[in-house]
Amino acid sequence: MIVSGDKLYKTKNGLDVVIYAIYKDQTCTIHGAIFENKQWRPASWRLNGAYSVVTSEYDLIEVKPRIKRTYWINLYPNNRAGFYYSRESADAFKSDGRLACQEIHIDCEEGEGL
What is the pLDDT, as a whole number, of residue 4? Predict the structure, then answer.
């Protein structure tokens, strides 16, 4: 992993991180802070996100955006279905023989399942 300024990161143990600057000509190229014990403390990492030469709970991991969506699905015999963005759309486009209209909630990390 190479850290980029346009992504979000946390530590491996889930602490919030803010990155102030990336200097590519230093050993610890990434300068920022870790929010721990209700306060921000200065920290620095290597370009690959490593906190030190050994694996650490303070190593950086990318936080991918979450995708949250709600859909409505019309269910029909023989495994047929139709997906809609609202209950109103699902009702407006229903076909004869509809068995059910079910609300579906999607909450996943970007890229999940690819």
Answer: 62
CA distance 72 to 83: 6
Phi-psi region of 45 (alpha: psi -120 to 50; beta: other; left: phi over 0): beta
The rounded distance, in Å, linking the Cα atoms of 101 and 62 is 37
Share of the chain above pLDDT 90, in %: 66
pLDDT tens by residue, 10-36: 999 999 999 988 887 777 789 999 999
Which positions ≥6 away from 94 have C-beta within 8 Å? Answer: 74, 82, 101
Amino acid, single-letter form, for residue 69: R
Tokens of 54: 């050994």
The answer for residues whose C-beta is within 8 angstroms of residue 102's C-beta and 6 or more apart is 72, 73, 75
Supply the pTM of this predicted model: 0.59
Helix and strand numbers, DSSP H then E, in the chain: 1, 8
Q: How far apart are CA 74 and CA 90, in angstroms?
A: 6
